[in-house]
Amino acid sequence: MEDLITVVIPVFRVEAYLHRCVDSVLAQTYRNMEVILVDDGSDDGCPVICDAYARQDSRVKVIHQENTGLSGARNTGIEQAKGRYLSFVDSDDYLSPEFLERLYWACVETNSDMSVCRWEYVKGEPVPEKGSGKIQTFTGRQMLENLYIPDGAYFVVAWNKLYKRELFENIRYPLGRIHEDEATTYRIYYQVRQAAYLDVSLYGYFVTPSSITRRVNPKRVDWVKAVSERIDFLEEKGYTELMVTALQAFADGSIDIYFGLKDGLPDSEKEQRWIRDLIRQGLVRVKPYGRFPLRTEIGYRMFLMCPGIYRRLLERVKSENGKQ
Known about the structure:
Layout: E1 5-11, H1 18-26, E2 33-40, H2 46-56, E3 60-65, H3 69-80, E4 85-88, E5 94-95, H4 99-110, E6 114-122, E7 135-139, H5 140-146, H6 153-156, E8 161-164, H7 185-191, E9 194-206, H8 221-236, H9 243-264, H10 269-285, H11 294-305, H12 307-323
Parallel strand pairs: 1-2, 1-4, 2-3, 6-9
Antiparallel strand pairs: 4-8, 5-9, 6-8, 7-9
Helix pairs in contact: 5-7, 8-9, 9-10, 10-11, 11-12
């Protein structure tokens, strides 16, 4: 008999999208699953919708709780899960009908601890199936390396994956923080013996205007904190070959957030200074492991001396590259 899969769906103020999400999960070709809807104190029609699904389908379990945020809702689902495998779906997103089946068999056929697929931005249409469909396996160390490749977003997020539940035995998502994936996924990869990557898009990522990670928000610095913690972890565990790349990716992302804060939140001087201090430290921290490309290092030093000039030069370079 196929293994039980637990699908955890955190629910908060998504009345307009919840039916589409849950329907896509219940329509999976893989049938041996339980679906845990975690109503995270939603004050719209979501609690009623959740309860209706539980009455209609015995695979659906509903948990109503006071609001704890996305991390807290996921953690509740993890603690209540009974499946051998675990998957997360955000409640405004939706799935291809074969999402669970193909990820499950990718794990089984390659004897992997987890599996990952591609995802696509969607606006309500069926998830477009892009990619070769081929399965590739990676060690946990290689999965950490994949966080820094051009398609690294596939490997960072929580929700386009199938995990053996035991991977979460000692791991939970950090409460009260956004970019909780950045703060958690690398610790999962550290435990992974082998993972399977399925080169096909099976998850639809629906971007709403209210997406918290896209707004100018002081909590955007949670990304800076999470990725800084990841670098500390890589250094502690001896992943020396990743340090230059990790520090450069951290600096580039932090500079983007710095300018977002500067433009949109003029009262964020403290956070802006903190980001500049971390980049200054990074210029020293990288030395035992190598060095940044010369042009990159000069750019970081210019940013520290005069962010305005750095920004104008960066915009000019982008404009010139766009004309080519």
